[in-house]
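hey can u check if this looks right to u? its 266 residues, i copy pasted from the old doc so theres a chance i mangled smth
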Amino acid sequence: MAIDASAVVAPTARVHPDAVIGAGARIGEYCVIESDVAIGAGCVLEPYVFVKRWTTMGERNEISAGTALGVLPSDKSFTGARSYVRIGDGNKIREHVTVSRGTTPESATEIGHGNYIMSSAHVAHNCKMGDDIVLAACSLLAGYVEVEDQAFISGIVAVHQFSKIGRLAMIAGNTGVSADVPPFLTCAGYRGDATGLNLVGLKRAGFDAARIDAVKKAYAILYRSGLLLEQALARIEAEVDAPEARHITEFVRRSKRGICRERVRR
C-alpha cells in the first residue's frame, strides 16, 4: 500500500493495497478507496467518500461526504472495459456528487483545476470540464458534455449529451440546455435561449471596457444582424479584431448541435 507517511487514514476507512495516497492527504471515516486509484498530496476526503477503480486526482482537492467518484457510466453500451476519471488540482466537490468514468475502452471523464461542484450534481461519462467552473447544486451534465473555463452553471440545470458550454457562459437556474452555448453568453429558460451577455462574469474576470465592447459587437452581429450564420461569422472576423471575438467564431464553427437561439422579447 503506497500511503505516504504524512497522510492520515481513519481507522474505519478501507484503502486497497494498490491505491496511492499522497503526502498530507486525509482520508475520513468509512471511506472506500479501490485499487488503481491515486489521490494527490493535500487532498481531504470527508467520511463516506467512495473512490472507485481507475480514478486519479491531483493535489489539494476537497471531497465532501457521500460523494462517489469513478462510478460506472449510465450507458447501455458500456461493456465494463477499463476507462478513467481524471481530476486535476484544487477542486471542491461537495456532498453526494457522482462522477462517472468513460464509456468506451480507455476513454476518460476529465475535470480540470479549481472547479467548485456543489451538492448532488452529476458529471456523466466522458464529460470534459475545464478550470474554474462552478457547477451548482443538483445540476446534471449528460454524457460527452464539454464545459470551458470559468463557466457558471446554476442550480437544477440539465445539459443534454454532447452539448458544449463556452468560456465564461452563465446558465441560469432551471434551464434545459440542448444546444451549444457560445462563450460569454447568458442562457436561460426551458429551451435554453440566449438572453444576452454575462456582463457580471466578464467584469469579475477582469475584462476592461474595450474587451467587453468587442464581445458586445460580436454578439450583436451573431444574433441581431439578420445575417445567415456563416455570413455573421465572416462579418465578426472582418470587423471585430479581438481574441474574444475569434473565440466565439471558432466555437460556433466547431458546433455540431448548433448554438442556442436568442430569446425574442415581446
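The chain has two domains: 2-144, 203-254.
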